From TrEMBL:
GO terms for cellular component: mitochondrial matrix. Keywords: Transferase. This is Citrate synthase. Pfam families: Citrate_synt.
């Protein structure tokens, strides 16, 4: 099949793609699909750049330059797009549409993460056969080298799980196809192929690295061996010691919804930025994970659970009410802290990633005490934040809900939560990175200004 595709590519004159299509492992049909789509997309982007290169997408004000570049349209990102009111679309599909359309595990009710990997990489809803091929391919890549396991096992148990995940990702880098091929002088037309190989190897291996970190820190190092015949959600859960099918379904949902949130967020943009220097996917992802580990970004899921546990402790057995929760929210704000899990730099409505987790809870754990607390906070926090009058978006984001679901099934160690976010974010950010290389995007280099230079600009304009 791969050879046939190679011949077709040669006939069409895609010499770079020919070599791309014939090298390495079969990817369960995935590489073939990409190889057929990339030339069309390359031609489309070439035409847009030639014909409309001077069209202005947006401007950048002084306020935006000092203000975290909010809303400045200055990059492309192919795998997802975020609308402030509607929320995320993965390759054009909303979360409810993904839940409806993407293939599920037998007996499960949430989309398979493998189906999202296919969707993000190709833009197509996969068939069952596509998924079977991809799972087989990922299984063939899943072995984590002993040297990597040794490095993870040697880390102090007190080191934060996110630091361990970044180290584990870097330890895997020794196997980078891109790094090895670049050293040999691979042509540019092959970059996407090498990035795809690395991406699939990372996606296949990272769950075991993450599960080992979990078991080392919280379970005396006893890890259930990987069973690559299971889907990614079930296998990752089992390796961590969770055999409840409902938890496996939650894990599938978790891995799908955290995967991608367009290109401007800290983790996705870091992966894109670092990758633009042709740093291989391991190096790029490790950098992105370090951004995800910040409390205003992915670490917020840890902070939410800590905060909610603190609320419970302060209530000291008293029934949570709108009144006592309102007071505790003000205490949090008045102590100079943010309310974790609320607000967003782009969204201006409740995050659909929050909503789908709430629906999961309503279906599976409606009587959970912590879920009831989170639900009551949903009624209280937006009013408090609105009254405070600073936030642009008082509504909950993805992190306001995830921990409460996990703790229901026994995963109570909140310092681990961001690791799971990282496993998922790897899927989206790396899928986009493959396309960045396929489209030949150059190294990123936006212009910065000093305050002195801004003064000079203003003086020149007023002269
Ligand atoms: N609690 C208290 N204050 C908040 C707030 C919150 N949840 N969200 C925003 N604010 C404050 C900001 O700190 C800012 O205050 P200053 O003017 O004093 O600096 C002001 O409101 C305006 O901020 P904004 O424009 O509404 O929000 P930003 O785009 O600057 O920041 C975010 C977005 C997510 C960092 C912010 O809402 C926040 O800190 N939320 C809590 C942390 C969190 O949940 N992060 C996870 C986001 C999702 C993710 O990436 O995983």
């Amino acid at each position: 099949m791969i050879r046939t595709l190679g011949r077709v590519a040669l006939r069409r004159g895609h010499r770079g793609l020919l070599t791309g299509a014939v090298r390495g492992l079969s990817t369960g049909g995935l590489k073939e699909v990409l190889a057929s789509k990339i030339p069309k997309m390359q031609a489309d982007v070439k035409q847009i750049r030639e014909k409309h290169g001077q069209k202005v997408l947006g401007s950048c004000t002084v306020a935006q330059a000092y203000g975290g570049m909010r809303s400045v349209k200055c990059m492309t990102y192919e795998t997802s797009l975020l609308d402030p009111m509607e929320g995320i679309r993965f390759r054009g599909y909303t979360i409810p549409e993904c839940q409806e359309t993407l293939p599920r595990a037998k007996g499960g009710s949430e989309p398979l993460p493998e189906s999202l990997i296919w969707l993000l990489l190709t833009g197509d809803i996969p068939t069952e056969a596509n998924i079977a091929g991809l799972r087989k391919d990922l299984a063939s890549r899943a072995k984590v080298p002993d040297s990597v396991t040794k490095i993870i096992n040697g880390l102090p148990k007190t080191m934060h799980p996110m630091s361990q995940l970044a180290i584990g990702t870097l330890a895997l880098q020794e196997d980078s196809v891109m790094a090895a091929e670049y050293a040999k002088g691979t042509p540019k037309t092959m970059y996407w192929d090498h990035y795809l190989e690395d991406t699939l190897n990372i996606i296949a291996r990272l769950p075991e690295v993450a599960a080992r970190i979990y078991c080392n820190i919280y379970r005396d190092g006893k890890m259930t061996p990987s069973d690559p015949s299971l889907d990614m959600g079930a296998n990752y859960s089992m390796m961590m010691g969770y055999d409840n099918p409902a938890f496996h379904d939650l894990m599938r949902l978790y891995l799908v919804i955290h995967s991608d949130h367009e290109g401007g967020n800290v983790s996705a943009h870091t992966v894109k930025l670092v990758g633009s220097a042709l740093s291989d996917p391991y190096l790029s992802l490790a950098a992105g994970l370090n951004g995800l580990a910040g409390p205003l970004h992915g670490l917020a899921n840890q902070e939410v659970l800590k905060w909610i546990k603190g609320i419970k402790a302060q209530l000291d057995g008293a029934e949570p009410t709108k009144d006592n929760l309102t007071k505790l929210c003000w205490d949090q704000l008045n102590s100079g802290k943010v309310i974790p899990g609320y607000g967003h730099a782009v969204l201006r409505k409740t995050d659909p990633r929050y909503t789908c987790q709430r629906e999961f809870a309503l279906k599976n754990l409606p009587d959970d005490e912590m879920f009831k607390l989170v639900s009551l906070l949903f009624e209280v926090v937006p009013a408090v934040l609105n009254e405070q009058g600073k936030v642009k978006n008082p509504w909950p984001n993805v992190d306001a809900h995830s921990g409460v679901l996990l703790q229901h099934y026994g995963l109570v160690e909140e310092s681990y939560y961001t690791v799971m976010f990282g496993i998922s974010r790897a899927i989206g950010a790396l899928a986009n990175l493959v396309w960045d290389r396929a489209l030949g995007l150059p190294i990123e280099r936006p212009k910065s200004m000093t305050t002195e230079a801004i003064h000079q600009l203003l003086e020149a304009e007023s002269a």
